[in-house]
Structure formats: structure tokens, C-alpha cells
Amino acid sequence: xxxxxxxxxxxxxxxxxxxxxxxxxxxxxxxxxxxxxxxxxxxxxxxxxxxxxxxxxxxxxxxxxxxxxxxxxxxxxxxxxxxxxxxxxxxxxxxxxxxxxxxxxxxxxxxxxxxxxxxxxxxxxxxxxxxxxxxxxxxxxxxxxxxxxxxxxxxxxxxxxxxxxxxxxxxxxxxxxxxxxxxxxxxxxxxxxxxxxxxxxxxxxxxxxxxxxxxxxxxxxxxxxxxxxxxxxxxxxxxxxxxxxxxxxxxxxxxxxxxxxxxxxxxxxxxxxxxxxxxxxxxxxxxxxxxxxxxxxxxxxxxxxxxxxxxxxxxxxxxxxxxxxxxxxxxxxxxxxxxxxxxxxxxxxxxxxxxxxxxxxxxxxxxxxxxxxxxxxxxxxxxxxxxxxxxxxxxxxxxxxxxxxxxxxxxxxxxxxxxxxxxxxxxxxxxxxxxxxxxxxxxxxxxxxxxxxxxxxxxxxxxxxxxxxxxxxxxxxxxxxxxxxxxxxxxxxxxxxxxxxxxxxxxxxxxxxxxxxxxxxxxxxxxxxxxxxxxxxxxxxxxxxxxxxxxx
Length: 552
Ligand SMILES: O=C([O-])CC(=O)C(=O)O
Ligand SMILES: [Mg+2]
Known about the structure:
Pfam families: malic (PF00390), Malic_M (PF03949)
Number of helices: 24
Domain Malic enzyme NAD-binding: 263-523
Family: Belongs to the malic enzymes family.
Protein name: NAD-dependent malic enzyme
Keywords: Metal-binding, NAD
CATH superfamily of the domain at 264-456: NAD(P)-binding Rossmann-like Domain
Bound molecules: oxaloacetate ion, magnesium ion
Largest sheet: 7 strands, mixed
């Protein structure tokens, strides 16, 4: 810092991690050279929070609210997090799904200030240099995307950056990761979205996506640079297209502290929600027939964890597999299909066993529901309305408490609306969605919230756990531990009429419980230094960053 900088001191006000804005006391203003730079009154953080919420409410649309909140984050991070923490349930849909989808779509149009790292293919020989230019020296968590499969809205190119930025703000809000130690990364390998390629304002590398070999080499170069610069960081992959998501995870999961949130986070939260649902239904998971609509990375990831959970409950691998059904756009995954990845093929049913189910060709979702006593129906297909009245009524005719999770994001992509599911099943369906929905109205005037089965219950807690425990890998058992701890926190376990997942007001406390369970599992798996449960609990508590103004 030069003398000149020290003299006028205005830089503190411009540093989003240090500024308190109008909350600097008169003494602090003198000390920091801020005298005269602020209006006289000294406000409390609570007053700033109240004022900011007034501003949020005054905006005309949710996109405007998103823009306002993102600008607040760039101006004063502690205030931003205090604002979110003051009303998590209202804030989440604004900084996360569904509004973040609009933020990604219109990324170039609403651009304000840079945040994070843009690693672009034309700069491929200078990735290390770019990484060294990061503003934050120490980093606990990176979220990286290439923008190719953003939520359920496809290829958003550079606009995908909205997702790492949004997810990392939840790592901080819910998982207590210090915002100064988070790094959003966008790998810009082009876009195949014609609207973006034609958009004069598009801010990414205006080019079709690069070929497969170049892509693999680019990702490898990125990982190598991260390993050199930030060897202990948690590297979270987000919203990669299915053909890349699984191979990347497989390539790096034993080399780095890494996980894929769409595959593993979505699976853990779904399993957590199923715990409460199967308890209320009175039929354990091992006795359920489970159908997944959607064979992308998230859908297959959920089924993989469901299958493992059935095995944990005593089924053989084959018995478990026989109870798992995956249907994609073409129909049921069957052994005679030649378009399946290895991960998908593991769930293929013998074509001979299902011969004649489909009218012509492969059995569709309706055919599977017709022939199998389906107790659990999950959607990660982005096919809006795919859980039709006929399908749902058929299911509800067979089982007392159908468990139905339309999980596709954002809201418009959901396979069904909770109010319709409720209607078609006379209130018997046990429902969870991926994006937020309004509560269900009961005849007695009561409103029942719909559980939001979104990976936001899991990834912040995993980040907190690996940071607190100094873990070096994310094992499958750690993700199952996360699911178990979330499931144990289900309000439905003690009240069958309660939602399947904890309310947002409790999510930070639940994240501590999940983090502790994950940290213990990391130690048990030998991927974190030995520590007692008490030490881990302490470490989780000490790691958690809180949005408050300390002195100075
Ligand atoms: O971001 C969300 O809401 C959940 C998620 O990972 C996805 O849909 O890709
Ligand atoms: Mg995602």
C-alpha cells in the first residue's frame, strides 16, 4: 500500500471484504482515514440489513432483486451475508434457483463487475498465470463449471459463471466458508448455443465448443495448475454435460479433494429426503420399486446411491438393481440398447424381461408404472409435466403413500407441480421438489410447505466438513454420511404431516450436524488426520465464518 493510499483511506470503503460502510464508528473513521467520507450517522449491521431488505423488496422483478443482491455482494460481503441470513427462505430463490437461471441466461446483458476466474481456451498456455492473478491468496473451495449444462436450461457458455458464484455464496451462507477463501471458476471452452453465438453483447469466447481431445487436455491443464497453486483446495465440479461429468469425476476423484455436486450432492439430498418419506410411507427403501425419469449425471447419481442404500439395508447387489428403473427420453434403459454409458448400463433391465411392455419400441414411463408397483418416482429429466395425471393416478392406485419427487430445476422444468400431485392422489403423495414451490393448501386452512430437495442441503456442509477436518478426498461413504445426517434431521420422522426436509430457518444448524458426520467419516476412511469427535465438533465450530462486523 502506498503512502498516498494510506493517506486518503478510501480503499477500505471499496474493499468488499473489509468495508462496513456507514457502520464504521467515529473512532474507526479517524483511524482509517475515513473522516469526512461518510455521512455522520453510525448505523448498526441490523439497521443496514433492514435497509437492504427494503431495497430488495422495492425492486420490480426477481431478476432486479438478483442484480441488487449481487451488487451488494460486490460492495460489502459481510452485509450481503447478513442480509441473506436474516431471511434464508426469501433470499434463496433470489440468489439461487430459480432466479439464478435468469441471471445466467442474461449474464452478458446484466454484467456489472468481475468476480472469480475466467479461464478461456485461447489463453490455454497461460492458465497458471491466470490462476496466480486470483484476488484471493488462500482458497478453501473452488466451484468450477464449463457452462454446458446449467441447471435444466442447457448451454449458457460464459453465463454459466452465475452458478459457481451462486453456489459459493451458499457455501458461505450455509456452510460458513470464509468468503475471502472461495473462488468461482468458469472454463470457457466455447458455446454451442446459437442465441449466444449471435448475441452482440456475448462476453465469452465467441466460438463453438472445442473438440473432445482438446477439451480433455484443457481440463487436465486446469487441474494441474490448481494442484500446483492450491494443492489443498476442495474442487467442486458443477453443471457439466453428462458425457463429461462422470468421466471427469472418475478421472480425478482419487487424485484430488473433489466431488461433483450434480451427481453426488443431488444423490445425497435425495437419499436424505427418502429417509423421511419411506418412514412415513411405512415401506423401507429396500422394499420399494424406484423409478427415475432422466438418465443424466444427476439421475444416474441418485440411482447409484439408492442402490447402495438398498444394499446397506440387506439386499444383494442384484436384488437392489432389480428394484431400480431408469427411463430416459427414448424409454427404459434396457440391455439391448447401444446408446448407454457404463454408468447407465449398470441399471439396464434385461430386454427379455420387459418384452411387450411398450406399445412399439422401448417401454415408456407410463408402461413401467403400469407393470411395476412403483412406490418412488423421481424426476431429473428437465421434462416439464412428464409426471402426468394418468401416470400419477396409476401409481396412487397401487400404493398407499406414493413418493413423488419432481426434482428438475429451475421451477419451470419440474416434472409436475406439487398442487397437482396433491390433487391427483387425494393428498396421499409424499412430495419434494428441486426448486421452490408454494405451500400446499389444506381444507382446514393450513398451509403445508413443500420440501425442497435441493443439493444446497448437502454441498455447503461437505465444504465445511472437509475444511474443518482437513480431508484430502471426498469418499462415497462421506456422501452417504451426509445423506444419513440430513435424513436424521427430517421433521417427518417425528410428525408424518411435517415436510420431508428441515425448514430453511434451520439449515445452518443442520449443516453443522451434516458436517460433523462427514468429518467423522473422513477420519474413519483415513482421508483426514485422526481426531476425536469432540475435536471435530470444535473444529467445525471454529471453521464457521459468521457475517458480523468485528472491531477495526
Ligand atoms: O443448482 C441447483 O438448484 C441444483 C443443481 O445443482 C442443478 O440443478 O444443477
Ligand atoms: Mg448443478
